[in-house]
Input
Amino acid sequence: MPTATEKFNHADDATAFVANHARAKWHDQALWFVRQKRDRMANSLPEWEALRETASSIKAYTIAHLAELLEQFERQATKLGAHVHFAKDAAEHNEIVLGILQQHGVKKAAKSKSMLTEECHLNPFLNRHGIDVVDTDLGEWIVQLRNEPPSHIVLPAIHIKREEVGELFHEKIGTEKGASDPTYLARAARRKLRETFMEAEAGITGVNFAVAETGGFVVCTNEGNADLGVSLPKLHIACLGIEKLIPQAKHLAVFLRLLARSATGQPITTYSSHFHGPRPGGELHIVLVDNGRTDILRSDEFRRSLNCIRCGACMNTCPVYRRSGGHSYQSTIPGPIGSILAPSRDAETYYSLPYACSLCGSCDDVCPVKIDIHHQLLTWRREIAVRGYLPWSKRLSMRMMSLVLRRPWLYRLAGSLGRFALRWSPRFMIYNGLNAWGKQRELPLAPKQSFRALYRQRQAKNGKS
Amino acid sequence: MPRVGLFIPCYIDQFYPQVGLATVTVLERLGVEVDYPTAQTCCGQPMANTGCTDQAAPLAHRFFEIFRDYEYVVCPSGSCTSMVRTHYDDYFQSEPAFEPFKHRVFELCEFLVDVLKIDQLGGKFPHKVGLHNSCHGLRELRLGKGSETVGPAYNKSRQLLAGLNGISFAELSRVDECCGFGGTFAVNEEAVSCMMGLDRVADHETAGSEIITASDMSCLMHLEGLIRRQKKPLRVMHIAEILAEAMTP
Ligand code: SF4
Output
């Protein structure tokens, strides 16, 4: 989270990331590799576009009927023996989870990947109350050991090189110095995490899809850590945003096919675990969290952003994200979709995120639920201007530009003056600290005459007016 | 033959007049009657993309008034065409004539392929060309199939180029990644913008492009700026310039 004293501007963090060119290049290529895997998987299904369309309409239906579906889910889940809680915001969510853990005297919990608990900053909250939470997803665990937030929603440690993981493990869990073999490191992590699984008195998980019809839910992982985390202790707490609902179990057939293909380019995640009520002798709590979602739901422009199934494909394809790194967004959900969600929560702080985008539109086309991401980012820019969060210099220059462009004579004059200045000014006048364009780029060579002048001459020559 | 109102984006008017002239040449050689209304300035995209829609609105209305009576409007820029066709709706909520009008506004290649139904232009262009698929043309106007989508492949710009004798294509490793221009993005996010551009240039160099072409001069302005600064032996040409050169005996 940005601090209040320094105004957060994505471009500053991005510039710092790009400054380490080798790393930025490596990051770009690592994510592009995932994007290519996604392309291959998508192309293996001729019905891919129809599947996206179906998913999009199911989500649109869900969001339009969210209140009923939530009630239905609550009823069904309760019938199955689960305790269902509703939290209006992050603070309430954290209190509920803490309350449940305290009631059971839990001192240590194993948590599988959940962006919602990241969003609510659950870990530090529980730590403050003397409860140890261990993230059991390997990537999440790595960033937890480094005491930093994930930089990607599916690949939390994508910004870290394996040599750095080797160093981290050497320091924290005593692996051999200099060891960076992934298999060796993964084995060491597994051994260490096993201890957590054995000691944990509660398992906390996220949820990928909650089915209103059945009251059940699905958690997708590649490591099986969610299953392990909730199979040993008696207590399972599942936390989810209210938009994670889908109406019927059969809809899983659509979403499970899309999710892993879009996320990592796998046909399906290694584990898609279905939970229907607590396991025998156990206790299951489901915490449904709003935390600003109903505000988004009420807005015609941004409602569709709630369709998001958190696959991360828009990040993998985003040419800006790939080169600026997830942390440059300073928000739990980075990248294109994060740049819609963050200003929905706090437009003043995150005003720069909708501008961290070249409007290439690639995100719209990979999104498995067809969110019109780049159009929404454009709409956010308008909102930001309307609410007055745009720096005055930008507002003024746009105003001036519009004034000129509304008057053809003034436009012609400004054009000739500009070209004249470009042709005749000494280089240092044009290429200096004030000219961001010219830092790494030449300006176009100004021609003597504009198109309109040349066109007029051409017409005159051809005997036309 | 149809009568066409020529829409020349402001930066082409001011910095790349030869691209405007090439557009006129291509259209006239195909028998199109071209008219360039001189009251035009800019479609308002820079303001709209900054979020200053109230500054863009008067320009959108001017545009509509200037061009509304033409049978077709043709523009050598996918991005500016898309501004009109994809992003103007908000400004014309109470103007029913806008909806049919916007479907008469075409990007140049699109006009040649979809309206004039041209499969192949004559002429030769014996060079190795790298086609940069500009984003708004590709993903908003759908001038080609983007690499993200699944379905039959097509590409209107490439189709026109492929018909020229002697041309060969440099095959890129990332066929339609953004060049990083993005309007004000180019200066707001200078570092990322330039890295994106340099990555594109490198891809073209590896693929052996002699000339980088695109249907948007703005992308080429950015790429050329980087190329010239680094003194690389690549050239950029707008697709209209290539077509005009090939068609000129
Ligand atoms: S917005 Fe779409 S592509 Fe991005 S994470 Fe959400 S579902 Fe995936």
Remarks:
- The first strand of chain A starts at residue 83 and ends at 87.
- Strands of chain A lie at 83-87, 108-111, 132-135, 202-205, 209-211, 217-221, 235-241, 245-246, 271-275, 283-289.
- Chain A is about 50% helix and 10% strand.
